[in-house]
Amino acid sequence: MRSSKTLAAIWAALIVSVLVSACNGPLTAMTGLSLNSNEQGIHLPETDKRQFRYLELDNGLKVLLVSDPGADKAAASLDVQAGSGDDPRDYQGLAHFLEHMLFLGTEKYPEAGEYQRFISANGGGHNAFTSFEHTNYFFDIRADALEPALDRFAQFFIAPLFNAEYVNREVNAVDSEYRARIRDDRRRELAVFKSQLNPAHPFATFSVGNLETLQSDKEEALREQLLDFYQRHYSANRMSLTVIGAHSLNALEKMVASRFGKVVDRELKRTPIAEPLFDESRLPRWVTIQPVQNERALSVQFPVPESRSLWRSKPLNYIGNLLGHEGPGSLLSVLKERGWAESLAAGQSLNFDGQSLFGVEVTLTSLGMARTDDIVDLLFEELALIRDSGIAEWRYREQSQLARQQFLYRTRSAPINEVVQLATNLHRYPFREVIRGDYQMSEFDAEQISRFLAAMTPDRAYISLMAPEVDTQQSIARYQVDYGERKLDQNTVAQWQQTGAIAELAMPARNEFIAEDFSLSSGGRAIPRAVENDHGVSLWWRDDDHFNIPKGRAYALLESPLAANTAESLALSQLWVSMVEDQLNERTYPARLAGLSYNLSANWRGINFTVSGFDDKQALLAREVLQGLVDPEWRVTRFERLRARKLRALQNSREQAPYKQVMAELPRVLRSDQMDLDAMIAATQAATLPAIKAHAKRVLSAMNYQLLVDGNYSRQQAETFAAVVADVLPAPGAQAAPEQFVRALAPGAALRRGVTSSHQDAALASYVQAADPGKRDRVALGVAGQMMSADFYYQLRTQKQLGYVVNAGVYPQRDIGGLMFLVQSPVMDAAGLQQEVNNYLQRWLDAGVSEADYKQHKATLLAKLREAPKNLSEAAERHWDDLLDGYTDFDRREQLIAALHDLSYEEWWQRVQATLDPSQRRVLSVYHLGQWAEAVPSGEPLEAAAPLPEGSYRFQ
Questions:
Q1: Strands 239-245 and 73-80, how do they pair?
Q2: Residues in CB range of 663: below 8 A, 6 or more apart
Q3: Where is the Peptidase M16 N-terminal domain (predicted)?
């Protein structure tokens, strides 16, 4: 929910503390809900039937094992209590650099890239991240390959090589990672924030690292620093490991103990951070930042007392939920009504050893830019209102009740995500609370909440204003960011301190959307079935037979060829939908808090509507949303604000990282349903409120309805959803269904399309289309892409050091197979990258593939296709995608499996050669020139608005 989105969410990807800001937690038992505590007393939801075991190895390493019999995937994560906060001052970024180096060979597995190839060949993925206090390494893999994967993984922490030959190469990779994000506004904002901190605090340092801070010109010294850091910070007693697998607990324990028991326990202790985050004698402070993108945001942050130890009560979560509420009378509601803000986020932004930071961030309108002092004043009025009338036990209990529901009926994430969270939580909570701790909120303490609120005062505020028009006097060269400092006069601060009643502000009312009925439907089936009904809609229904939770997803496609058949109609549809969502936000926000959400979107098929979460009150929410769609409040001020926001988003996409831009442009060139960016900007600019009203009327008059109700639903509930649609929306029309086309590339075709921006890096996305349409080539290229993925990365990134962003894999368009090769580089131009891709493909063809390798990768891809959905939402989404694409037997995966199962080695190699043969290869290259303006890749130029040729692949 947005009330928990703070700078923590923004900075999590920026190598700072990874903080899970769970909004709520349990307080008291609730009727019909129960815990599933296993033999060790680990608190689990009743719906989680897996077996858990916690143990501590003799070397002090904490281990959580999860046995999930029948699981398709296994996963593991090891979390080290050491991060960028431990960097030596003269080697900033060293913890991050060490994270990179651990992947490049160990004594038992010395070949760099071997671990990656093994994981990829067995259907898995891997990664790592470095935060302020932690470094986390993780992977997932086919369940039957877990043990050999663990054997390789464990060696990272037993006997890494830190080969001298890779020190210089990998420090270039770290530098490329830094350079790839120089123009990222979140990184630039963080750089300014760090410049304002107490310089003695370790958070003020440069955590990413580059050639300069890692002293790359002294390779031998850098390697010595690596070895020293590893010895001083990597110790079994500062590590936690989580493993999820299909094996029994005893088998998992044997796998882990025999390997990770060899990790050395150096008996290391963490040194508490004594320095405060801010020099509070220099607060309050106001800084201004000039962004790359056209965005305006006001952030107010407060250093507050340590909150990590208060995980049972979570006072900052309580405050954040009240301050970030979006219902009637909320701070955001008042700011929107005055035309000053678009969104607001509030909550804990940093939380580490001994210190916390609480913040509020407001996305501003152009009008709001002129009223920033008034917005800050309103913030302090809201804080005063919370202090005076917001601290109430019934409010706390309501938040606790919602959190308890979230915990007891939590949606289990993919194993690779779950192991990361659990390994981190082993450092945060007692092992019995490793899952429940994020949701725990069982101790209401009014005085404690008041103490935190008392720290949120004008004289202790750090305020930053990011906008293109701000004044700047200083700069940070490392991120090329200009910023300034505004001196706050005493009168302004005094005004903020004088609070009084603001009539529009009010505390949230009781939440009427909290689920009360948690009963489960009887019966159940694996796939949806069509349901005859009297409402004139196509209705499909599945009552879940597997996950057994009181949740579900109800989908409605309001199909119309008029919704998005041109850039103009798509722009009008998107603005119509966003106006409805904005209008309903205050009413539906409590529903989101209660675990009940909806989504409206416009695409080539029409208007898509989804309701998800607890099924108890979905029909109530669905009716309100659809009524809003049919009869919106056509307010000029709302339209102007939302059109301005949409225009900024479209224009800002030109300032994204080059690899993101080329990947966004590729489908615009390939598919008829993806509109040209310039056309969308022009259409949005030209949109008027009368045009949207007329467009909505036309679209509503020409709709057909297709529904899927999937989850904990009875047939009666499914028919009720259909009745709501029929009751609220106009009678179905008779318009033909919309169509979608995919560009067919001719044999030997080499097309190119460029994107432009101010970024200096070059980038290339090279798409290779299958020689033949259909499932045989799609699965054939699926096997090839799986083979190439790790090898392409190793060759172009690890060996050639072309850049940080290097990727290869499959890129199908429906049943049209394809391969994708992506590189962003600070050291090579786009034409050179194109040649490197071509050289790689030729080497790969020349080397050939053995039948044994083919069979292994074929088996891995078959296992991927057979993977069961991890949760109810994933299962429903698969069914909906199948239904929309015409697979009314819901057997798309089964058809792919059948095509791959029958594909012999000889036929596979023949099909791959036909696709990759240089004389017949069908290639589309999307590129960004960067600093090399003359180095244009080869190929026939393709204009942005070029029509799809005759004979392009047609889908309906």
A1: antiparallel
A2: 765, 822, 926
A3: 62-186
Residue in 294, 356, 299, 320 with CA at minimum distance from that of residue 2: 320
Give the ranges where 441-538 is alpha helix by DSSP (H).
446-454, 490-497
Please state, as a whole number, how many other Cβ atoms lie within 10 Å of the Cβ of residue 647.
17
Please state, in angstroms and rounded to a whole number, the distance separating the CA atoms of residues 447 and 389. Answer: 13
| Phi and psi, residue 717, nearest 5° | -65, -40
Q: How far apart are CA 622 and CA 726, in angstroms?
A: 12
Torsion sign over Cα 398, 404, 407, 410: negative
DSSP alpha helices (H): ranges in 701-795?
Answer: 715-728, 775-793
**Tokens representing residue 759 in the block:** 């970024």
Q: How confident is the model at residue 956 (pLDDT cuts 50, 70, 90)?
A: low
Classify the phi-psi angles of 611: left when phi > 0, otherwise alpha if psi is within -120 to 50, otherwise beta: beta
Cβ burial of 553 (10 Å; 0-12, 13-18, 19+) is: buried
Give the closest residue to 282 by CA, choosing from 463, 88, 51, 143: 463
Question: pLDDT (tens digit, 9 = 90+) per residue, 608-661?
Answer: 999 999 998 999 999 999 999 999 999 999 999 999 999 999 999 999 999 999
Pairing of strands 135-142, 73-80: antiparallel
User: 36 falls in which pLDDT band (50, 70, 90)?
Assistant: low
Report residue 458: phi and psi, to 5°.
-55, -35
- Select from 797, 589, 611, 572 the least CA-distant residue to 694: 572
For residue 890, give every residue at least 6 positions away whose Cβ sits within 8 Å of its Cβ, in sequence order, or none: 527, 528, 878, 879, 882, 883
Give the ranges where 848-891 is alpha helix by DSSP (H). Answer: 851-865, 872-884
Q: How far apart, in whole angstroms, are the C-alpha atoms of residue 600 and residue 552?
A: 17
Domain with CATH 3.30.830.10 in the chain: 50-260, 280-497, 529-738, 742-955
Three-class SS string for 34-55? CEEECCCCCEEECCCCCEEEEE
- Counting every residue written for the chain, the total comes to 956
Separation between Cα atoms, residue 682 and residue 667, nearest integer Å? 19
Segment 249-296, tens digit of pLDDT: 999 999 999 999 999 999 999 888 989 999 989 999 999 999 999 999
Q: At what angle do helices 905-916 and 775-793 cross, to 10 degrees?
A: 70
Helix 851-865 vs helix 114-121: crossing angle, to nearest 10: 60
Strands, E assignment, 383-515: 462-466, 474-476, 481-486
Residues contacting 347, CB < 8 A, separation 6+:
3, 4, 5, 6, 8, 21, 316, 317, 320, 321, 324, 358, 359
Contact 313, 448 (CB under 8 A): yes
Residue type, 444: F
Task: Give the CATH class of 280-497.
Answer: alpha beta
| DSSP class of 106 | B
- Helix, strand and coil content of the chain, in percent to the nearest 5, comes to 45, 20, 40
CATH H-level, domain 742-955: superfamily? Metalloenzyme, LuxS/M16 peptidase-like (3.30.830.10)
Strand order in the sheet with 355-364: 341-352, 355-364, 297-304, 462-466, 285-289, 481-486, 474-476
Contact yes or no for 82/238 (Cβ under 8 A): yes
* Residues ≥6 apart with Cβ < 8 Å to 269: none
Looking at domain 529-738, its CATH superfamily turns out to be: Metalloenzyme, LuxS/M16 peptidase-like (3.30.830.10)
Give the three-state DSSP class for 142. strand
Query: Could you tell me the two tokens for 850?
Result: 């053995």
How is domain 50-260 classified at the architecture level of CATH?
A: 2-Layer Sandwich (3.30)
- The band of 535, judged by pLDDT with boundaries at 50, 70 and 90, is confident
Structure tokens at 526: 């694996």
How far is it, in rounded angstroms, from Cα 541 to Cα 524?
10
